[in-house]
User: Fold this.
Amino acid sequence: MSEAAVTLERTNLLGLERAGMEAFVQTLGSQPFRARQLWSWLYKRGEGRIEEMTDLAKAFRAQLIERAEVRVPEIISAHESADGTRKWLLRADSKQAFEMVYIPEPDRGTLCISSQVGCAMDCSFCSTAQQGFNRNLTTAEIVGQVWLANRELGTSGRPDERAVTNVVLMGMGEPLANFRNVVPALRIFTDDLGFDLSRRRVTISTSGLVPQMYKLAEETNVALAVSLHAPDDELRNELVPINRVHPIAELLEACWHYIDEQNGRSVTFEYVMLDGVNDSVAQARHLVRLLKGKPAKLNLIPFNPFPGTQYRRSSAEAIQRFRDELINRGVLATVRRTRGDDIDAACGQLAGRVNDRTKVRLGDKLIGVSVQP
Ligand code: SAH
Assistant:
């Protein structure tokens, strides 16, 4: 057999759920506790070299080296912003790439990860949408982003950098359109034998795939963010085309259901501030009617421009006025501070490198878009 053929057969240990890891070690004739040991090496110690996993029996290690590997996405390039934000371009294959962003703050280190190469949702104000959609990331590629970031941060030598404390699925892609690969990754993030992040420190953000939101409520209990961006269906149909399939009333029902089921605190509604489009006081009042008294908070995101966009960022005064209107009428609202825009790492600026995109995008064709169950 050629070397390439052997490599193809190797199982990637990264991204195997507990049960999957146990099943794998059993195929090697080993006890299930070996799976816990492997998890501990991978996620607690960040070790990717099987030969360094020194408390594993030698014969088992030899078997593993033959049959398994720890395969993380290759870093194509790394960028650092003046504000300390870091962005990495990661290889998906010879032509495709995706991005992840690390945002340091005094009390936390947030990693913003991607779930797909490109995106099919076609939101009109998002640069990822302009790229079209290529493919879903695997669980290993999703988990691999956190694994890699921890390795890179640990070796940077910068005193202000800490390991990842928070993960947000707010990079490229619609995570709920890649449900099958995303949910196991969420489990590995929060499992005490995995990255052991509290469920409140892992946030999944969706443009509003309502059926998948109900399924998510059955499968996990991480924090939920929803890209709202408009108070009425007419405008939201234009900005977030999935709204034509699942309008606002249906979306909000799914949100309250999620919070009920998960005993969660509140849904964070993302709202991009577009000059003259969705930033009027009347629109703020409309939002109040939708959200007052509900477990909701609004996160206002100043629009981040990208080449070719028709939109402009709302003025600082308009954002302030909008926020005050919400707060004065009893709806929690914060303004997201723009980070990393000098390296195109801010919200909606992640473009990666998407070739071979499928032509079907949500805006072109609402029915028949392949949204994985
Ligand atoms: N597809 C998911 C995950 C992406 S999260 C979702 O839509 O929720 C990224 C957030 O940044 C979303 O709320 C998205 O709407 C917002 N965003 C997209 N483009 C933006 C831009 N140009 N400026 C500011 N925010 C943007």
